UniProtKB/TrEMBL annotation:
EC number per UniProt: 3.6.1.9
Record-given protein name: dTTP/UTP pyrophosphatase
Predominant localisation class: cytoplasm
GO cellular component, one term: cytoplasm
Organism of this sequence: Humisphaera borealis
Family in the record: Belongs to the Maf family. YhdE subfamily.
Location in or out of the cell: Cytoplasm
CDD domains xref list: Maf (cd00555)
Site, Important for substrate specificity: residue positions: 12, 71, 155
Length: 192
């Protein structure tokens, strides 16, 4: 059977897939995540980037099954991605303070040699309480915002999230229930 390849450098995605019991290799996709048409919605951006990650790695390993994902935060129709630096993280967190927003992950499975392509986009809702400037600065100092869409990590005992509706693993970067179903459709089951 062809290998399963995780086309991601995200430690959260690796951990979720490993915890679920799958055997896989990891080959992160090096793609430009800032290059997309400005007219796209947050979900469309996540879908475009997940497909781009999958295709980049599938070209290198055409006979294998490639899994890629992209997670964005949507505040209304505004897309908030990963912060470039601490100032950007401050700006993002200020805009999320006291809001109900969505976390959207697009998942793509593809195998180039057979033309296989499955995709799924999953949304979760997150309520965030208002944060004071002092709380914001304390959080920025932890560095936990780095590399995370929306500049927060729900898995790090995030102090600002008050409620979530929908999949938790989707917020962390890979909606496992849907990913399991997609893998199963391609004949892949956990090894244990
Ligand atoms: C909202 C949120 C996002 N995130 C993370 C998941 C993703 O790693 C990241 C979104 O960035 P992505 O661009 O989706 O992924 P990535 O750059 O980390 O990895 P790759 O492109 O190689 O697959 O934000 C959390 O870990 N916790 C959270 O609560």
């Amino acid at each position: 059977m062809a290998r399963l390849i995780l086309a991601s450098g995200s430690p959260r995605r690796l951990e979720l897939l490993r915890e679920a019991g799958y055997a896989f290799d990891v080959h992160p996709a090096d793609v430009d995540e800032s290059d997309f048409p400005p007219s796209l919605s947050p979900a469309e951006i996540a879908e475009l980037l997940a497909n781009r990650k999958a295709d980049t790695v599938a070209r290198r390993f055409p006979d294998d099954l490639v899994l890629a994902a992209d997670t964005v935060v949507a505040l209304g129709n505004q897309m908030l991605g990963k912060p470039a630096d601490a100032d950007d993280a401050r700006r993002i967190l200020r805009s999320l303070s006291g809001t109900l927003h969505q976390v959207i992950t697009a998942v793509v499975l593809c195998r180039a040699s057979t033309g296989t392509r499955l995709s799924k986009t999953v949304r979760s809702s997150v309520s965030m309480r208002e944060m004071t400037d002092q709380e914001l600065e304390a959080y920025i100092a932890t560095g936990l915002w780095e590399g995370k869409a929306g500049a927060y990590g729900i898995q790090d005992n995030d102090p600002f999230v008050t409620r979530i509706d929908g999949s938790l693993t989707n917020i962390v970067g890979l909606p496992m229930e849907q990913t399991r179903a997609m893998l199963s459709d391609c004949g892949y089951e956990p090894a244990r």
